[in-house]
Amino acid sequence: MAENSGFFRSVNGDRKYSVSFLAKWAGCFVSNGVYNGELAVTAGENMQVVVPAGRAWLGPNGERYKYENDSDKALPIANADGVLARKDTVVLRWDVNERSITAQVLTGEFSSNPVAPAISRTAEQYDLKLAEIYIAPGATAITQAVITDTRLDSAVCGIVTSIVTQVDTSTFYNQIQSDLAQFKAKNQAEFTTWFQSIRDVLDESTAGNLLNMIQTHEADTVAHVTQEDHDKISGAVQSATLGGAAVTKSGTELQFPACVQGNTKAWVATEVATSSDNLRFFLTIPNFIFSEGCSVTFKAPVATATNNPWLGIVVNGQALYLLRNLSHENLSGDEWVADTSVTVTLSTVNIPNGTGQSDSTAFFKGGAGSIGEMYDFPFSVQTAAPTPINASHIWIHRDDKLPFVIDEAVRVGDWSNDNRYFGIVDTTDSNYLFAQSLKTLTDGTKIAAVNRHMSRDITPWHVSSNFQFAKKNGIGYYADNWSKWPRIYSRVNGVVDMEDAQRWDGSAWQWLSQKGHYLAFSPAAQNTFLYNRTDGLLSQHSSISSVTSSYEQACVFSPDGNYLFVGKAQKVLVFKRNGDMFDLNTTITANLNHVFNIKISPDSNYAAICWDYYCMICKKQADGTWATLTQLGNPDNYNIYACSWDNIGSRLIIAWTLNSSTVRVRLYTRSIDTFTYQANLSVPGNSIWGLDWKDNIIAVVSNTAPYVYLLVLSSNTSATVITADAPTNQPSIGTNPVILSGNRIFVMSGAGYTCRYTYTTSTLTNAGQSPNSHNGARALEVTPDEKYAFSLSSYYLDIYSISGNTMTLIQSIDISNAGNYASQIAIL
After folding, report:
1. How far apart are CA 36 and CA 180, in angstroms?
2. Residue from 253, 242, 308, 243 nearest 279 by CA
3. Chain centre to alpha carbon of residue 795
4. How many CB atoms lie within 10 A of CB 252?
5. Could you tell me which of 577, 573, 568 has the C-alpha nearest to residue 517?
6. Which residue has better confidence, 682 or 323?
7. CA distances from 637 to 158, 658, 686, 701 (A)
8. Which residue from 710, 713, 672, 671 is spatially nearest to 691, judged by alpha carbons?
9. What is the enclosing helix (H) or strand (E) of 607?
10. Could you tell me the pTM of the whole model?
11. Residue 516 — very low, low, confident or very high, per pLDDT cuts 50/70/90?
């Protein structure tokens, strides 16, 4: 076994200590557990629990990692079932892969005898169990009474101790129980000894005298008790209550109230059979023991029989309970339909059945499933792919079970900003709505009332197809609702964001919305246009207020999706994404006019901004803002039109036109924050439109035939220029090139064509061209999955699908000259 020690001063890096070493060092001083009196789980609002401020140490294999929570943290509890209970576990989880310790809820399984989920204690995850939560059937809120504190159980949590071994509080508890048992045993023995001694001195005469005194006392009650108490002793009961209502006496019979108070005991039938006339439900309930007011839930194979006094249930082939409503009346026949769950309360109250006979009673209460669901479209909220059901099936790729709203917008003030999902459609005016339910008039008459809205457009999503989902007092409850397909948003802890969500089209899952997918461009003299993107479909998000200018404008997203850069004349505005919102984060200024191009390094830590004849380098700071690091100039003092990073961000190229005859490409290497010039590489051309860089291949587009050139780098200081046949009928090239996988290059021409190329490290081949919908293309971008391309001209934003070397137009968006002087499209 090796020796190890620390800590010692490092000489030339020969003493480096790992995170594990530091954690084991901490483990020498503190034990696993929470600080005494801290992190006690309490009930929150509705279905939430709260973990308060507090501290803990935890970790496996003798390692200790510090946890601290500085404010109340609300944790949502999944919705309850209508019939079965569940137990959840609240833990602090150390996760080596997530590199964090967080408070979490482990959701249990529904059961008539639920068991809380086990905690994890492996080399990758280690839990401290703070509490167990009991979720009763039908629960809509968490109370303190259903929370079991487990912090003092050292087997699953315990209290932090220092140097000395963990205080085993379970041993303390067992010792208290042992002492109590010894105390009871000792006193019981003393009492028995005393009783034996006194019994020995009670002879027959003494015992007889005591008996006479007791009988005389019982007969002489008037002198010792009130008349009311005397009546109680003699059995002369005049009135009582049951379940809070009066029970009165009439002759020798008791008149019972119209309700029975239930207790907390709940039973679920595992099997249900019916008699041939459907008046008896024969229930099998394992281990059933009757108690007054207990509830029983069963799935009824047939609907309610109408107004029949013999309708009842038989439990385990023995006791018969006649079914009645809470007013002691026969059931009307509207209480439930076939194959729905029914809940009743059992009582020994005997109600005459009209034939002179009486039996115990099952009071109908309703229960889960006794009324169908109005919104019956298949709906899955889970990360794992569900089994598709029909063409109205929607799937949200998330495990949090939250309420769902169909609306035109996520409204700030609705539902007090609680957490929920939103299905957003462009306008609910297009929806078809039909809803009918019972309405009671002021004279007690019951009629059907309908709310209806006729659809204006095609509405493919069938939200409510269960046309009659319930029936009461002879009135049907109907729902037939249709909507356009929604985009799915969430609002969690006040943050609104789009969610990954799909719909089933009968053969495959199709996207409804995609989190973190956007398209933006920034035209001259206007705000920046921002769209939510779902594959090749765009929906208007907003316009971001930014500086306007008549000069070229650039914009780009950082690869990590957290920032949007917008170049506007003498300013570059940096917006930070918070959910689905973009807030101004940093303003970068310079006494320059043209922002031609912006590129962000692959690690999203550096920004290269082509600003007139400089390339300004900005770096992300520790607080998330951006600051200028350095400026890269060019010796020719010409405008720098384009730049690009290599695949890992260790090299940067900038490009400009030299004397209207040569395009100069200048290469820099980066070491942390230092950029070092390596070489000037040249290609023909009197104007550069753009460039792209992948591996050691640099594609350059100029306006000199053959227009598209490859620079194949053999080192950081030398490259081979490769050309191809010029495309036919092409007076100029309009956009930047895009290098795709499979050695493909796409370029959009200003004359209205898509030019396609293939390449190797020694060849560049013209693969043909095809006409576009619109001339004057200024920018081209392709989605990261290379399925869609977006081309921007002065008047149109064109959207193409990509298949191999073919681009097919699928949509054109009229942007009414908004593309003028927009030199980049930003895609995320």
Report:
1. 26
2. 308
3. 39
4. 5
5. 577
6. 323
7. 69, 9, 15, 21
8. 710
9. strand 606-611
10. 0.55
11. confident
